[in-house]
Structure formats: structure tokens, C-alpha cells
Amino acid sequence: MPAGGHDAALALERDGFAILPGFLDAAEVAAGRANLARYFPTPEEFFAAAPEKFAWLRAGQFAGLIDFPFVDDALNDHLTHPRLVALARELVGADDVRLVQGRAWAKYGGNVDFDQPLHRDYPNHTLAYPSAKPGLRELIGFIYYSDVTADSGPTCLLPHRYASDVPVGTRHLAEGTRRQQEVQAVGPAGTVVLYSPLTFHRGSALGPPPAYRWITGFSYRAAGVDWTANQCWPPAGTTDELHRFMARATVEQRNVLGFPPPGHPYWDDDTRAGIAARYPGIDLSPYRQ
Ligand SMILES: O=C(O)CCC(=O)C(=O)O
User: Fold this and answer.
1) Is the CB of 201 under 6 A from ligand 1?
2) What are the structural domains of the chain?
3) Residues of 192-220 as b/e, b for ≥16 C-beta within 10 angstroms?
């Protein structure tokens, strides 16, 4: 079991979420931040700039979302990290898991209202309704690349015990007294936050400059649970980012994207030749056995 797996399983079952500080070490956080800086201004750059310079980031609360796969390696490697995959296996309850959401998300205080109503994620993650059975669960989460404090828009999560009276199928909750019952997912850069598609949660407002938040988001489920996914990867197949990732990825990293595994009937001389031409540099030896 990966570090934190047992406690995370208990917390997920009891509360509907788990907060794991220190999931990434300092070097991994630094590499992730350098990778994010390829896309987003640092808070110093953003807050010093004229408003029109980064107007795209002021266009609404979802403007700072960018999809996997990314340029460089760190963010791609973190979203498919052996530690994260091991945790996903444990918590989803399956050996063969798939990444079905991967995004980077930057938010900066002072310009956009990031406050959301308490909601569940399943309506745009599954065609069905979430199941708690091992092998059928979805695990959703965030990785923090900046310190997330009460002022920098922590995700707010409602422990399951405060939602026990909610009718089945409820997607949004009227706030009422709920804001006193929420837990703010604060934590240093390197923290991972995990939750289930039935957990009520919300994005929260950021304070004034220099408040900001840099994260990535992910979702895992078992192979074959085809009714659950928020994104898929073949449409990225024409990008340099995907080509770079596929050429250098481990077999396990490719597996979590749904690539044909070693030993699959897919593999023959024709497909190996096509894959070698498509992803120059890829090591096909595992797919020859
Ligand atoms: O940004 C966050 O902390 C949560 C966002 C969220 O729950 C959503 O956009 O559905």
C-alpha cells in the first residue's frame, strides 16, 4: 500500500475526502512549478502586469484550466506517478486503473469570483451514478503546487455526516448552515486532496493580491468502467506534448492512458512498426514479448 493509503481509505469512507500533505517532495514541487510557469504567469508577474496583459486569466473562474498532456515532463509524470497510481489502485479497488481527468489550474485573487456552490462532481464524470463497490469507484483529486491557505481559495469539503439527510440524486446544496460544517483543504505545496464523486465540495473565493493557487486535478477509475470519464486522450494524439510523453513514458504510464498493454493481441509486426514510426524513440521491447 502506498504511503498514506490506509489512512486515506479510512478518511474517504468516513468523510468523503482525504488530505495528504507531503505527497510530492520539494524537488518534485519545484519541477512542477517550473512546468506550470511555462503556461501561467507567476503571481509576481500577474499582479505587476497591466490588466490587459493576462486578460485571458481574468475571463472567468475556469479560464485558467489547461488539459493534460503538458509540455515538459514534471506535470505529466506527477499525474501518472507510481505513487499516485498505487494510491488510485488501492482506493479505487482495482489493479488496472485509468487516468480519466488531468488538468492544470491557476487562479489569481482580486479579479474573478471563484466562489462556487457546494456540489458533487458525478454529473459530468459519469453517465451512470457513482458506486462505492471496490473496482467501480472513481477517485478524484488535486495536487497542490502552491501553499494553499484559507486566503488562496482552498477547496471546501462537506464531511459525509453532514450530508446524510440529503435526498439521493441531489447535485447542489443550498448553503444554509453548511459553510460552518465544511473543511477547508488547506495544505502546503505538495499536498494531495482526494475525494469521491458523491462528496459535496466547492471552490472558494481567493483573497486580494498576492493570493493565488496553482494546482493540477486528476481522476482515476478502473479499466472497463467505461461509463465514467471526464476526459479522454486520443484527441490529444496530434500534439507534440502527447508524442513526447508516449516516447518517454514507462509501460505503466502508458497503461493508465489506456494504451495497449504488453501481451495484448493488438501487438504484431504491423502495429509495432506503426507505433515506432509514430513515436520515434519509444522502447518497444516490452511489447515484443
Ligand atoms: O477549485 C476547487 O477548489 C474546486 C473546483 C470544483 O469543485 C469544480 O470546479 O467543480
Assistant:
1) yes
2) 5-230 (2.60.120.620)
3) bbbbbbbbbbbbbbbeeeebbbbbbbbbb
